[in-house]
Amino acid sequence: MSPAFKAYGTAKGYVQSSYVIVTSPLRFQAPDDTTFLLSLHMLLGFAAEIYLKSYLIHKGTDAKTLRSPEVRHSLSALSELCVGRSLVCPELAFVVSHFDEKHASYEYRYMQQDSKYELPNLMDVFNAFSSLDLAVDMAIGASASEGRAPGGAWLVPAELAFWRIAPQ
């Protein structure tokens, strides 16, 4: 299995894990969503990073570039490199604008006391990741290599697409 395919599989696994968190009936047994807010965002931030790195690996980008401090965890830098190498994904801007800053600063791992977190509709989040998954899969041929067609989506039912945050 190629390094690009391995990275793609890891990214997809992170999104699938996030999807399970959001759609699990156990989510609504908790008093609110604050207990998994950071972990969900951390998984999705890493998924975005690894999807983009998968594409770049496929396009021949060397490991030294991908590990460089200005690129390593920067979704905006990775996105620019991908777009410069012809990745087409209309929802990529949404993913980068929502996850880049706090992913690159490790804030999804180490919450800052005075920070604010933007909480977009979860349908929008998973629609964007479905689009990113399709764009990268079509480019690198991960599904095709296993005789499957790329595509599919993580569909979040409307009744699960909102965040439940306790009032402060």
Keywords summarizing the entry:
single chain, 168 residues, mainly alpha, 6 helices
Task: Summarize the structure in short.
With 168 residues, the protein is mainly α. Helix content is 55%, strand content 0%.
Description:
Helix 1 runs antiparallel to helix 2 and helix 2 packs parallel to helix 6. The chain has six helices and no strands. It has 168 residues and is an all-alpha fold. The model has no long low-confidence stretch (mean pLDDT 93). The relative contact order is 0.17. The chain starts with a helix and ends in a 28-residue tail after the last helix.
Largest sheet: none
**Gyration radius, in Å:** 16 Å
Count every beta strand, where a strand is a DSSP E run of 2 or more residues: 0
Q: Work out the helicity level.
A: 55-70%
* Poorly predicted regions: none
Structural class, by secondary structure, is mainly alpha
Beta strand %: under 5%
Tally of helical segments: 6
Terminal residue distance: 49 Å
